[in-house]
Structures are given as structure tokens and as C-alpha cells.
Amino acid sequence: MASLELFSKKSSPAELAAELKSKCLEHAVKHLGDDFWQFEFGQELAAKANMLADERDWIRQMDNYILFGETENGQKVLDEIIANARLNAEEKETLKQWREQAFPSIFEIKEVEADKIKALDALAEVDYEIYFNDLAKGQEAAKNMPPGSFVQTNILPVNNIWFFSGLQIALPQGSEPAIFQAYVAKATGRLAFRNNPEKLKRALEAQKKHYQVFVDTFGADELIVPTNRAQEKLREYYDNLAVNFSRSGGITAPQLPKDFQEAETIGIVMHAQEGQHEFRDYGKFVKIFEAGDISKKSREFIMDYLEDESTPAFIFKRMKERHPENFHKVMLETTARADKRLYPVDDFDRLMDIFKPGWRETYPAVIPLNQRFEKYYYNLGRNDLCYCGSGKKFKKCHGR
Length: 400
Description:
SEC-C domain-containing protein; 18 helices; 3-stranded antiparallel beta sheet; DUF7986
């Protein structure tokens, strides 16, 4: 088989992948051990120390840390390795590829060959050919990955060829319900749209329709309501969504988190590209910028919004556009007094780069589901009426 040449040539992609991962592991263990245990992957492993943690857990979490982790000072682990490990130019360029393109996912096995597996990324719905960088170990692992089963793993590129990385966790055929609940239903951002521009296009089109339904329902793209009415308003919007998208069985509105009950107001805010968000005490957030309030309590409140990773940048942009002078005043006082330094409040993009890293890369909240997983979203049996409103049974319509 021609693809076996990946393993036979000197300095082959497979050899480079294996040797470079070994160097990364050696560097991380020797120089970043304390950082690893402080980061989420190490903390998760430490939490299992008195339970079932074993070598496989360590391999999985260390691979996650190398590819996706950060040092104690906030530097990406791969950038730290590029800067400080003894690597040649080719190895450094390869690590830059890993930094930008490596990712974790759940893959459905389509075909198994001697040196590779053809698989579908179950989250983004993209086909990949994934090679093993160790042929013998790969062939052994492939015995647990028959077509129709699934595997949870990381993959990374070397010279535009994809390789398995870290641990491969095999999941048997028939795991779709569990995979949907644990992964597909929770996938957002890059994980849901990676390398699939067609899916992203469909999602953006659907998101615009959701936005219009929201505006038609409430007359604006944001709503500030007393907390005890927020759930009622969400149901009103989702009922209208169901009508507009011909969902005869309705669409269940999400339940607000319990800690939202402590707030005076809830903001239900819609963005044409980024979708629907709910915010605690959003009324207070808006009033601070309306009034230019720089009292200590207001500064602390805004700082909490700034430092909350789940709060998107677009609500700050709205305040800047509505109240430019007060926005500058509030942000200058809030950031300067927080840690005695000046932030670039005159440059919105740079300011958000500091407090909302990654904010420039936005994705819709509406994520199209393929037919394989739609039935789990709508909790349909084969003989139930199809979610599309056709009046046909699911098995005779979208469930075929």
C-alpha cells in the first residue's frame, strides 16, 4: 500500500510526529511539571489520584496539556516549547501547525486500513484520514475500532497529514445517544464548525432567522426584564421559534441557571451572528454606561463582566456605540483602578484582546445537526412524527 511509505522513508511525517511528540513530552515533564499540575488537565488528574487514575489517564491529560494547555504565566505550552526546547527549524514549524490546527474530537470509524483510519468528525461533520505514527501500536489499537464504532482522541497535522495523538478511547457501536449528550449537544465554536465552511454558512443563515424571530417577538434585539419574568419571556420566544421553523412538537426553552434568581434583572440579548445570551443584572450593566457611573461598586461590577470568560465582547461594543464618552470614562476608571496600570481604552479591539482573548473569532450559537443526531435532540423514536412538521413518521421522513 502506497501510504505505508509514510513509515518507510527517512524523516517521514510519521517519524517526525513520533520524535517531536517525544521531545515535547520530555521538555514538559522536565521544565513544566509544576505548571501542569496547576492547569485544568493536571488538576483533573489529581482529583482522580485516589480513585482510578492510571498511566492511560496521565497520557491523555499530558497530551492535552502539551497541545492545548498554558504555563502559569499564561503562555501557550507549545509556544514555550518552541521558544526554549532544542528544536530544528522543521520541528518548530511543525509545532506552529499543531498550535493552530491540532484538536480533540469524537470520530466515527468509516474504514480501517493497515496504517490509517478513515473517520468522520462527529462534531464538525468532516471526513479525515488519520494515520498512526507507530504502525505496530496503531494496528493493535485499530482492533478496538471497527467500522461503525467511535473513538475519542486528539489529532494533529504533519505536512498536511493527520496523525492520532495521545490516547485513543474506543466507544462501541450504538454509542450515539451518549455521544450526543456528552459531546455533540455541547459542541460550540471551532469544535462544531472546524474545516466545514458549508456547515458554518448554514448556521449563519439559521442564526439570522433566529435573530429576526427575536426582534419580531420583542421589538428589539435585547430585553431587560425582572428576574421572575425571564423564564416566561424565554418561553414566548421559543414558542415563536417553533412556529417559524414548523416544529409541531415545540422547542423547549432553556432553563436559566439557579444563581440567576439572585439577580434583580435578567438581560436576554440577541446578536445577529453570535446568537442569544442571558446575563445577570444586565439592567445594571446598561445603566452604568448610560450614567457614566464610576463609583467603586460600579467599577467592580464592570470588572466582573470584563473578567468573566463567558461574557462576549459584543455587549461592550454596544455600550461603546451607544455612549462613547461614558464608555471611555467607565472603562478607563474601571481598568486603571483595578490593578494600577493603563489599558488601551481608546482602542476597543486591543482592549478586548486583553480581556476577551479570541473574541475576534466568533461563531453562531445555532448549530445545524445532521440526521444522525437530530432524533436525540428532539427525543424521537422511529415511529414518532418527524420534527419537520411533515406529518410523516420519523422513520419515513428525516429518519430514513
